[in-house]
Specification:
The complex is a heterodimer. Chain A is an alpha/beta fold. Chain A has two domains: 121 residues, Rossmann fold; 124 residues, Rossmann fold (3-Layer(aba) Sandwich). Chain A is 43% helix and 11% strand. The longest helix of chain A has 17 residues. In chain A, 57% of the residues are buried. By secondary structure, chain B is mostly helical. Chain B folds into two domains: 202 residues; 155 residues, Orthogonal Bundle (Fumarate Reductase Iron-sulfur Protein, Chain B, domain 2). In chain B, 61% of the residues lie in helices and 0% in strands. In chain B, helix 1 packs across helix 14. The model of chain B has no long low-confidence stretch (mean pLDDT 94). The chains are: A alpha/beta, B mainly alpha. At the A-B interface, helix 2, helix 3, helix 4, helix 5 and helix 6 of A face helix 10, helix 13, helix 18 and helix 19 of B.
Chain lengths: 261, 438
């Protein structure tokens, strides 16, 4: 299936507007695993005839990893640059598959002049179902045991616990919770720019600990909602030699697959 | 001569409360060393946050047993303070059980309630001690708890045991004297708990009993005055500071980290030189981030004084759970220790801080701890009184990166990539849409 992915620049040239901008994020654009999540989400957007556009080459890092690493200056440079681009196109609504971009755009851009309605893709998918343009039935996931890993910047940081879970429940799957979930969710180990560096000395890697918690629920699938969590948990599964028996899929992939997209 | 005990009592009371007032003003001065931050907006939300979290202890409930025991000690503490009012008045006037004739049956009920709570507090404190010292719950035995913090925690429990035992023994001897109809010991009803202590004192003469009763009475009030002043040297200030600490807490979503306004002006000037920067034209700060307590905000310093070292933060910290050096509790303890050190320095140098060649960074907290943080906010969320260790970690990271360029090498590469290609990896930004055709 060919993907329809208009850019804001191409739409502007045709004198058209998109009702929502899909902020792909760096992982979603460049990381091989995360690109699959990006495509799954776009397939749903195409399937539901959603009017959207991406920034393409005009998108730049939201600045989150720079800010969490302590480089406030670089963060603000990135933010102002992105806000200038978004405002040029008169963007009002943004959806993103990355909780880090989501949090930064939603909570930290307003003080720098960027005011947008920002949604995480799980919230957006939920709204598509609610308005009737997206139908979700169990299909291939019916009766499967699925555990959901809360991304810190979606869950604890922004108190979005219900949207991703409601999507999993739509699949007629058996949603099983880990020992630490929702407000008490354990980090995958990637946040705060840890993704880009080796961990400090300790007696275990954080992603291994979290993967163990996930495996304790005997899942068929570990559902994620963040490209970085996905990478960390995938590494964790490989470490536990469980990568063939348990799958890690983004909620967007679950929804796309269940619709045979 | 009859006035003599009243005078001693008055002097002790004035001394105890005076020292306490001095301690409080020192703490206040130390907290105000911190930088200004406006946290007086949204008053109604702040009041309700304080009532819910501090008064209502809503965040304790994640650990039900500890929450239950803590609630007993907390309610007991407040209730027995009502009794304290009578004790103080008796001490000043020279009366005995001043309220008993006025309150009648209600007095009986109140004393009964106090006794039951004193007993429950006693049991709870013994369970607390057992959890620490026999069950040895892990979070009470982390490296930062060695030495004084461990002794401090035990002292507080011993103090409470002694105070409760004194209170009950005082009542026991008093009620035996009442039963014997000894002068001034007016009949004040039944004593549901302390009656079990009668056998200890029953055989004593009236004279001996009076000496015991008076001794318990004096030791009890003296103990309370000493405990009041021990607060200053202990981790126990949370019984007072939990209230302002929750009132002035950061009520923004946890994911929203502060956007530095000085840097904002610089960046705006660079990116939009044509725009007038009206607000906050002040020159850039002399330092970015924090390497000492002087660079932190007063709310962060109040956080440090409020911490009672329960360790819930470190218990949920992913870095701490996996054996890294980072412990959010240690961040708070270090901040407080350094603040105390600075405070003492100011005291001996007639109100001015003299450079001591020490800093919070490196002398107390080392970069390895700071770089282990995943900024997951679990510590912030876990704190029962809204302490925010993460904001201190972030301020110190900012110092390391912006003042010292001392980030780990991989993070420098990541930031270099963002600067050059607009992504944390070395990919060409022109390839951002390649996924569409893959």
């Amino acid at each position: 299936m060919k993907l329809e992915v208009p850019t804001l620049a191409s739409l502007e040239a045709e004198g058209k507007k998109a009702s929502v901008v899909f902020w792909v994020g760096c992982a979603g654009s460049f990381d091989d695993r995360a690109k699959k999540i990006t495509k799954a989400f776009v397939k749903i957007l195409n399937h539901t005839n959603t009017s959207f556009a991406v920034l393409g080459k005009e998108e730049s890092c939201s600045g989150d990893p720079a800010k969490r690493a302590g480089n406030e200056f670089l963060f603000q440079m990135q933010a102002i640059q992105n806000i200038t681009t978004l405002d040029h196109y008169g963007v009002t609504k943004i959806v993103t598959t990355c909780p880090h971009c989501f949090n930064t755009l939603k909570n930290e851009y307003p003080e720098l002049g960027g005011h947008y309605k920002v949604m995480h893709h799980t919230q957006f998918l939920k709204s598509l179902i609610k308005e009737g343009s997206l139908k979700v039935e169990g299909g291939m996931y019916k009766g499967k045991r699925i555990t959901f890993h809360d991304p810190c910047y979606l869950g604890r940081a922004n108190k979005i616990f219900e949207a991703p879970r409601s999507l999993i429940e739509k699949l007629d799957a058996e949603l099983v919770e880990m020992k630490s979930c929702k407000t008490n969710g354990l980090c995958c180990g990637a946040g705060g720019a840890q993704m880009f560096k080796d961990a400090e000395a300790g007696d275990k890697e954080i992603n291994i600990k979290r993967t163990e918690q996930a495996l304790d629920t005997n899942p068929n699938i570990i559902a994620a909602a963040c490209p970085f969590c996905n990478t960390m948990m995938t590494d964790g599964l490989k470490n536990k030699k469980q990568e063939h028996s348990v799958k890690i899929l983004d909620v967007a992939e679950l929804i796309a697959n269940s619709n045979n997209l | 001569m009859a006035l003599f005990p009243n005078l001693i009592f008055l002097s002790l009371l004035v001394l105890g409360i005076g020292l306490f007032a001095r301690n409080i003003s020192r703490i206040r001065r130390n907290i105000l060393i911190g930088k200004e931050v406006y946290r007086s907006d949204n008053k109604s939300l702040r009041w309700s946050h304080m009532i819910r979290v501090a008064l209502g202890q809503s965040k304790m409930s994640t650990r039900p047993l500890a929450a239950f025991l803590h609630l007993i000690v907390y309610v007991g503490f407040i209730l027995i303070n009502i009794e304290l009012l009578e004790i103080v008045l008796d001490g000043l006037i020279g009366s005995h059980r001043l309220f008993a004739p006025f309150l009648g049956i209600l007095y009986n009920f109140l004393i009964g309630t106090f006794e039951v709570f004193a007993f429950l507090v006693l049991i709870s404190v013994i369970v607390f001690w057992t959890r620490r010292n026999v069950v040895r719950i892990k979070r009470f035995w982390k490296p930062e708890m060695k030495g004084w913090p461990k002794r401090d925690a035990d002292f507080i429990l011993y103090f409470e045991v002694v105070l409760m035992l004194l209170f009950l023994s005082m009542n026991a001897t008093d009620s035996i004297l009442q039963d014997r109809g000894v002068e001034t010991y007016i009949n004040a009803g039944s004593f549901p708990i302390s009656q079990f202590l009668y056998p200890l004192f029953d055989g004593l003469s009236d004279q001996a009993l009076i000496i015991f009763e008076r001794s318990f009475w004096w030791l009890h009030i003296l103990g309370i005055l000493i405990f009041l002043n021990y607060l200053f040297y202990s981790k126990h200030l949370h019984i007072l500071l939990a209230f302002p600490n929750t009132f002035y807490a950061n009520l923004e979503p946890e994911g929203r980290f502060e956007v530095d306004s000085h840097i904002k002006n610089e960046v705006m000037l660079m990116m939009h030189p044509e725009k007038e920067i009206s607000e906050n034209k002040a020159s850039p700060p002399d330092k970015f981030g924090a390497n000492d307590i002087f660079d932190l905000k007063w709310t962060q310093l109040m956080n440090a004084y409020s911490c009672t070292e329960c360790g819930r933060c470190s218990d949920v910290c992913p870095a701490n759970q996996t054996g890294k050096k980072l412990s959010p509790r240690k961040i708070m303890m270090d901040t407080r220790d350094r603040l105390e050190e600075v405070g003492k320095n100011i005291d001996v140098n007639k109100g001015v801080f003299k450079d001591d060649n020490k800093k919070l960074l490196n002398n107390y907290i080392n970069p390895e701890e700071l770089w282990a943080c995943t900024t997951c906010n679990a510590c912030v969320d876990a704190c029962p009184i809204a302490i925010d260790p993460l904001s201190i970690i972030m301020d110190m990271r900012q110092y390391l990166v912006m003042e010292q360029s001392a980030a780990p090498q991989e993070l420098n590469s990541m930031m270099g990539n963002i600067e050059n290609n607009g992504a944390p990896w070395p990919f060409n930004n022109q390839d951002r849409l390649q996924w569409v055709n893959e």
